[in-house]
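Q: I have 111 residues here and want to know how they pack in 3D. Can you give me a structure?
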Amino acid sequence: MEKTNEKEKSFRFSDSGPKYMFRGPRYEWGIIVFKPGQTLGKHYHNEVEETFYFLQGKPQMLIDEKSFRVEPGDAFRIEAKEKHDIINDTQENMRAIFIKCPYLPEDKVSC
């Protein structure tokens, strides 16, 4: 058993970016906050499947060059090898939960 609280974790960029709640041994999941203009960065995974559930904001989600305008409550499951990016091209913050499985922290290829 492992318990944590969001207040105990830090965002990568102080007050935005990803915040990992759990990392390994079988999966990892966390929270992403992007301020206006911030992006995830286009990438893919060779083996990892990634899921995003959007709580706040209406960013643009790109999957293999196809664009989707996100609404709160939307969920996306990204298969391994699918190139993806999140672009907060709005004037409000975006907040989402992400889950990556299996836990392979080195399995990220930037495009």
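Q: Anything worth noting?
A: The radius of gyration is 13 Å. The first strand starts at residue 17 and ends at 23.
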